[in-house]
Design brief:
The complex is a heterodimer.
Chain A (H helix, E strand, L loop, with lengths): L2 H21 L10 E2 L2 E2 L2 H14 L1 H4 L34 H10 L21 H13 L3 H13 L5
Helix pairs in contact in A: 1-2, 2-5, 4-5
Chain B lengths: L12 H13 L18 E5 L2 E5 L3 E4 L5 E4 L6 E6 L7 E5 L4 E5 L4 E4 L9 E6 L7 E5 L3 E5 L7 E5 L2 E2 L2 E2 L4 E8 L5 E7 L2 E6 L13 H7 L17 E5 L2 E9 L2 E5 L6 E5 L5 E4 L7 E4 L3 E5 L7 E5 L1
Antiparallel strand pairs in B: 1-2, 2-3, 3-4, 5-6, 6-7, 7-8, 9-10, 10-11, 11-12, 13-14, 15-16, 16-17, 18-19, 19-20, 20-21, 22-23, 23-24, 24-25
Classes of the chains: A mainly alpha, B mainly beta.
């Protein structure tokens, strides 16, 4: 699917996922949650929900559940979109890495790696990227948040 | 008595040497029956503490005292072995045809350990360097499975590596206790297209580059490997030294290759063509190799080799 196709599909799916996103509008921010060193705000999480629904949910799932059978390679040789919830591995990555992957694509950190996920530079602003990642982080259980905070802290230049 | 420092110099053939060993084991040890051949062209090696275990259709244990003991026969020939220094006496064995057994008491008690694991050939085994009850098994035509309870239950964690436009079988696995930058360590795999690795969070298979994923992130593009393994050669064995995880040994048709930096720079140490390798859990310079005709070991990191037994 082309990048434009992704976005078009994303908008379509967003209509469906918006119900979940909007229904879950009691935006709560876990105490002490940060992204790239800055405290995460309720407004940022709310923006992140919207951005996620419009741009990410089409592949990663309206409830961050990932594509079906996401551990099995597609016929194209590429891996399906993984979950962003606690079942996935997003919480193993430092803030800086998550930001870079989202902004520039996976190949930015694994040169030559072919992925269906585009880089969102030019489509989303840096603030929107930070917001969507703050939203994703806000959904993680305490254990996963704690683990990811430690990974981020160990990442030179992280928060 | 067979001593690791006193090689058997008379070729006995795969059947003969173990017949000798069976006789040598003799007094007071596990078996005095004449040993049969390992019985397969592919034998498996592992260090269990300071003892070397050699397995095929039979299982032999070379104690550091020099005694070779024949252990109870496995239910099918063994293709791969794994042992962790924090669980001495416990071995995991991949069986020919599929399935996996756990051997306790150094191989004296055998039990199936593949509940939940599909019945496919386990091509490679590894135990997590920092978690002795976590076992990884690579299944032919399938992918990587993980047990976090010492083989009681298994779950699928990752598809096979994708290299040169195709999925590749994992021929050998090693848990390498080097930080991945993602809160865990690396799992290295040898394939017919070389070595690749995946963080133990299983986000993606990737090339070995200098530093961890964070370094790659910062740099944008990582530095090219300075001395990779030769392209186009299958990696039939890959082991990491538990006591020095940056030290890797790989067996290729071109010989034994050694890396001192986690697989970025490789040096060809010997022309020995090995089917299986094992590295001492305490002494990273002590490695053992099965060349299909001889069981050899080196105490200087692969430069010089002595024959333990002709096979």
């Amino acid at each position: 699917m082309t990048r434009l196709g992704h976005y078009a599909a994303g908008l379509v799916v967003a209509l469906g996922s918006a119900a979940w996103v909007i229904a879950d509008d009691a935006t709560t921010v876990p105490e002490g949650l940060t992204f790239l060193g800055a405290p995460v705000t309720a407004e940022q999480v709310a923006l992140g929900q919207e951005v996620y629904a419009a741009n990410c949910a089409v592949c990663h799932g309206a409830k961050l559940e990932g594509e079906p059978d996401w551990k099995r390679r597609k016929d194209t040789g590429r891996m399906p979109a993984p979950p962003h919830d606690a079942n996935g591995h997003t919480w193993h990555h430092a803030d800086r890495q998550l930001f870079t992957i989202t902004r520039l694509g996976v190949s930015a950190i694994v040169p030559g790696y072919e992925s269906d996920m585009p880089g969102f530079e030019g489509t989303l602003s840096d603030d929107e990227i930070k917001a969507v990642l703050a939203f994703i982080k806000s959904t993680w259980p305490e254990r996963e948040r704690g683990f990811q905070a430690e990974v981020t802290a160990n990442d030179e230049g992280g928060s | 008595m067979i001593n690791m420092n006193d090689p058997i110099t008379k070729p006995l053939g795969r059947r003969g040497v173990l017949a000798l060993l069976g006789g040598v084991v003799a007094a007071g040890l596990l078996s005095t029956q004449p040993a049969r051949a390992l019985g397969t062209s592919h034998s498996a090696l592992a260090f269990d503490g300071d003892a070397l275990v050699v397995a095929g259709s039979q299982v032999w244990r070379f104690d550091p005292s020099g005694v070779a003991s024949l252990l109870p026969e496995p239910r099918t020939p063994i293709r791969a072995l794994a042992c962790h220094p924090d669980r001495r006496g416990r071995l995991f064995a991949a069986l020919e045809g599929g399935g996996l057994d756990r051997f306790d008491d150094g191989g004296r008690t055998w039990a199936a350990a593949s509940d939940g694991l599909p019945l496919a050939q386990v091509t490679a085994l590894a135990i997590a360097a920092g978690a002795p009850d976590t076992v990884y098994a690579a299944l032919a035509g399938d992918g990587l499975w993980r047990s976090e309870d010492a083989g009681t239950s298994w779950s699928f964690v990752m598809d096979r590596p994708w290299l040169a436009e195709a999925e590749r079988e994992v021929l050998t696995l090693a848990s390498v206790n080097l930080a991945s930058g993602m809160g865990g360590i690396w799992i290295y795999a040898g394939t017919d297209q070389g070595v690749t690795r995946v963080p133990d969070c299983f986000c993606r298979w990737q090339d070995v580059v200098a530093g961890d994923a964070m370094d790659a992130l910062v740099a944008g593009t990582p530095p090219a490997p300075e001395a990779p393994l030769p392209k186009g050669e299958p990696v039939s064995a890959l082991v990491a030294a538990h006591s020095a995880p940056e030290r890797l040994y790989a067996a290729l048709p071109s010989g034994i290759w050694v890396s001192a930096d986690g697989g970025v720079v490789w040096e060809n140490k010997s022309s020995l063509h090995a089917q299986a390798l094992a590295v001492d859990q305490v002494d990273p310079n002590h490695i053992a190799a099965d060349t299909n005709t001889e069981l050899k070991h080196s105490r200087d990191g692969g430069t010089t080799w002595a024959t333990l037994a002709a096979l």
